[in-house]
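Quick one: structure tokens for this chain, please?
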Amino acid sequence: MREHPHADPRAGDGPHPDVWTGRATNRLQWLPALAGAACTALGVELAVDSAAWTSGTAPLVMSVVGCIAAGLLVLFGTLAFVHVDLTLDKESLEVRCGHIGLPRRRIPLSHVADADFTAHVTPRHWGGWGYRWRPEKGTAVVVRRGEGIVLRLWDGHTFTITVDNAESAVRVIRARLRTSTPGQDR
């Protein structure tokens, strides 16, 4: 987790940083990413060494395309959720996933009704890791189990993010919400 150096966010209702940043990481996601890379490498190997293939061209093409497509899908799908970065400034909250920063979601604080800390967010509650939606629960970015933030938006939806030091982020969000008028863009 990285935080702005101007204030200690654990210090109750004291001054809050201009920009609060946090992160959650799941190193276990590297295992499926390695499996995806291996599947992609198998597809490339089949394409390069096609002379050894004796079953015909159509099965070879299907095997090469299938291995490469499945491998890339698994590789990039898992790398997108190795970590999540949360940036909270005076006007919005931005969530960026993975090394590329995609998927990304920016929520203006004027759209946030309240923020709550939750100590137990698990992939099991959301149906797995990643960017999730469940009709009865809302939307979430879950990269690991543990603490998180639950945003209640003015449109009735919720958005949950797993992030280290979520209590600090909730304090900063609530402090910023107290200084704004509900539902108005700033």
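The beta strands are 20-25, 83-88, 92-97, 104-108, 112-121, 130-134, 138-142, 146-153, 158-162.
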